[in-house]
Amino acid sequence: MNVRWIATALAVLVLAAVCVQLGRWQLHRLDERKARNEVTRTNLAAPPAPIDQIVGPQGVVGDQHAWRTAVVSGRYDASKQVVMRYRNVNDSPGFEIVTPLVLADGKAVLVDRGFLARQGGELAPGHIPAVPTGEVTITGRLQRSERGGHTNGGTPDDGTARLINGPDFAKVLGLNLYDGYLTIDKQEPANDPAFGGFPGPEIDDGPHFFYALQWFFFALLALGGLVYFSRQEVRGDNSSRAGSPEAPKAEARAGAAD
Fold first, then answer.
1. Which residues pair with 83 in a beta bridge?
2. Is residue 229 very low, low, confident or very high in pLDDT (cuts 50, 70, 90)?
3. Does the pLDDT of residue 144 top 60, yes or no?
4. Which of 52, 98, 68, 41 is nearest to 185 (CA)?
5. How many Å apart are CA 128 and CA 125, to the nearest integer?
6. Between 31 and 202, the higher pLDDT residue
7. Which of 46, 78, 133, 247 sits a CA distance of 20 to 30 A from 158?
8. For 73, phi and psi rounded to 5 degrees?
9. pTM reported for the whole predicted model
């Protein structure tokens, strides 16, 4: 075997190892998803509770709190309302309207009041339902702050943003906000019917297991190809030796000696 063949074989072995690692990574993601699904099921079944009893004094909504039902009472601050752009619900593009609810203790929580489907090519909602005046009580689902890597989509700019992020909103709105937000299940007085609701969580294993099988299959395919072409190479070498000019000469010398 020449150097080129050895280099090719090593490359195939490296490729197979990478495929195996990617398959193992998908299985790891599957385990994470199953654990997250279990937390979600537990939170969905938990009884409603005041927000401070759920998240504690730190005021941070973490993964362990997602979809937990919280109850808050306060007054909307419509002057600091933010329109969320580039949102999509059930494959329908539109906007979400986020309004801070100021609680009795002075702390505030971002409330996603609902979804407004985009009409035609509008860049902003044509009409935003007014917030209720006076005291409001909301029962809703907690969600952690949305994050987009190194983008600044969570910082409101001219009353609009792309991500709902408590700390980023707090810097601009000047409020002591919880790190997270709330989607409305029930509101007293009732939420405006113009708002569309949100689907519940996806509680399934996702595609990770099948992705893992695909990566393991690719690894086996690479190794199988290497074995096949190795055998072809060996057969080719043997055929070359059998048909070389040295073989007849050696047979002729052996006959002469007899």
1. 97, 160
2. confident
3. yes
4. 68
5. 7
6. 31
7. 133
8. -135, 140
9. 0.78
Q: Which two tokens stand for residue 251?
A: 């047979």
Question: Nearest to residue 200, comparing CAs of 186, 188, 183?
Answer: 183
Report the alpha-carbon distance of residue 239 to residue 231 in Å, rounded: 12
Question: How, if at all, do strands 177-188 and 136-143 pair?
Answer: antiparallel
Which DSSP string do the residues of 226-246 spell out, in sequence order?
Answer: HHHHHHHHHHHHHHHHHTSTH
Helix (H/G/I), strand (E/B), else coil: 216: helix
Rounded to the nearest 5 degrees, what angle is found at the Cα of 90, between the Cα atoms of 86 and 96? Answer: 40
Judge whether 154 and 146 are in contact, CB under 8 Å.
Answer: yes
Taking the CB of residue 159, how many other CB atoms lie within 10 A of it?
A: 11
Are the C-beta atoms of 178 and 59 separated by less than 8 Å?
yes
Locus of tokens 């409001």: 136
Question: How far apart are alpha carbons 196 and 89 in whole angstroms?
Answer: 9
Contacts of residue 156, defined as CB under 8 A and 6 or more positions apart, other chains included, come to 82, 168, 169, 172, 173
Quote the CA–CA distance of 169 and 80 in Å, as a whole number.
10
Q: Average per-residue pLDDT in the chain?
A: 89
Report the percent of the chain where pLDDT is more than 90. 69
